[in-house]
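Review box. Two proteins, two foldings.
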Amino acid sequence: MAVCDVKSGSTNSVNTVYLYRCSALFFATSIVTDSDLYSIQEFPIAPPTPKKGRGAVTNVQGRYEVDQREVVDDGWLHVAEVEGDEPKVLRTQIFEERAKTILTRNSSPDIPFGVSLNPYRGCEHGCIYCFARPTHSYLGLSPGLDFESRIYAKINAPELLERELSKKSYVPEPIALGVNTDAWQPAERDLRLTRRVVEVLAERNQPFAAITKSSLIERDIDILAPMAARGQFMAAITITTLDAEIARTLEPRAATPSRRLRTIRTLSEAGIPVGVSIAPVIPFVTEPDMERVLEACAEAGASNASYIVLRLPWEVAPLFKDWLSAHFPDRADRVMSRVRDMRGGKDYDSNFATRMKGEGLWADLLRQRFHKAVRRLGLNRRDRGILDMSHFRRIEPQKAEEPARVNSQMNLF
């Protein structure tokens, strides 16, 4: 394999010369004459190859990168396969980051919260559809494999949160935890950043809601259950399908669907209001499973349910298409055709009115299926959006004791 940049091309009546410069890997010149039976125009693009334990099959470049690179087969791929060369294992790297702020505010009319908190940037769960992938472009990294293998932990998140909640200008309102990237992803098991953030929230009676695919949230039930009893916490577990094989390719390092169902049951039995988020609904992949997911979650103790149609902003679109080609080549065109049917003919439409649920006939049919199943199962009978803000405690940050001042003239003696 090689990464090539097209350098130059020249043409005359006798032959055509294509010269490629390939990032310190090789130089190759292809000459095509008029008598040739075949006209070689360019190297074929290598098909995407899934990596074990990873969602993205490519490391697509971010939209802010100046140089564009393309992977091609330079003729050595077959040799490597014959000789048994194994590709290097892509290991997850955790980087410490000292953030400047920790609370993110938004005013989007289609989002039910105004403040969110994410202790991590990037997510090892590797969900191919994750709408947060493009944020890695701001770091000069790829929204593809980099997003799920190069994780940034905001190690000062608890201290920043303490400072923010202590400000006299802070107006208490519910906080959404782990909306962009999962707050209980694998790195949290050792770093315990989210645990410390939750402790700060509990100490100040600051209500919050959390969404996760991880069973690690059960570790913090000793804090979450008392907060839920005071009306200060609720949870949502994302389950897109009950098919373990599809989930393994779709969300490779998240808990299995059956394990997430057990988490719903555990949280519910602890007295924590818990719902299920079927996000996203992917046509012909997870969409046929929607009713079964709702039934299983209702039986496990979920009281609420919601869904979001597949969203493909920025670099997520090419990443998802590569994933489809690698895992579901038989239905890739059909999936994208249905996505465009629900997006006004485009891969994605960021219109606030339609970006969550889609538009058109197929979006309406999906909406009808969801609401019919919800009514049949008795879900969404309680208002899930009310958290009690009346007990919020503003704790002043502790100040270090200042040494007693001594009259400067005493130093003369």
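Next protein.
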Amino acid sequence: MRTEVVVFDIDDTLYLERDYVASGFAAVEAELGIPGFASVAWDGFLRGRRGRIFDDALAELGVRADIGRMVWTYRNHQPHIAILPDALKALNDLDALGITTAFLTDGPVVSQAAKVRALGLSAFASSIVLTDALGPGCGKPSPQGFLRIAKETGASSLAYVADNPAKDFAGPGRLGWTTVRVRREGGLHYALTGDDDIDVTTPRLSNLTALLAGIPATTTATITNL
């Protein structure tokens, strides 16, 4: 059975998430008028800072600002990001073969919706699921978002392409989907190992259709006790 629908994650799958981070820092600097903020925050990001990165950058600069406004600006800004060439090739190759594409991603709805617009994903999508909009507990590894796409597309043979082995593949694996991990250099989860529920790993997506052709497609499992 040929794969009918290929579903993609977004962050570090279609583009590098670090590009969104840099775009967000620049937006915060411009909106709040804090010279040097983007550079200092980016340096902290590269050194592994995460949760308190805004506080740390402000402390390093010796200035004060409304953290709530900074977070709002970061999450609501229109990002300067673009689909990576190999991912765009994969999308075009699938379209040429008549294989349906869809997208499923975690994260704040407003941020993920902005990424969808910036990347122009609506032009490729039969279905777009932002798991945050489904309610608490519906983010990966929950299978709820995957079930939604299976229902919306009516497909019985699906594949999921994503990057994070810690959470991305348990849901679709439980449903019997084909799973492909793209392990990009520069990706935030590049260093993570483990192949549970992963059928194949690749460093790029330019060969995706060939990879899928080499994996026996399976029929999606029916799960009623979620």
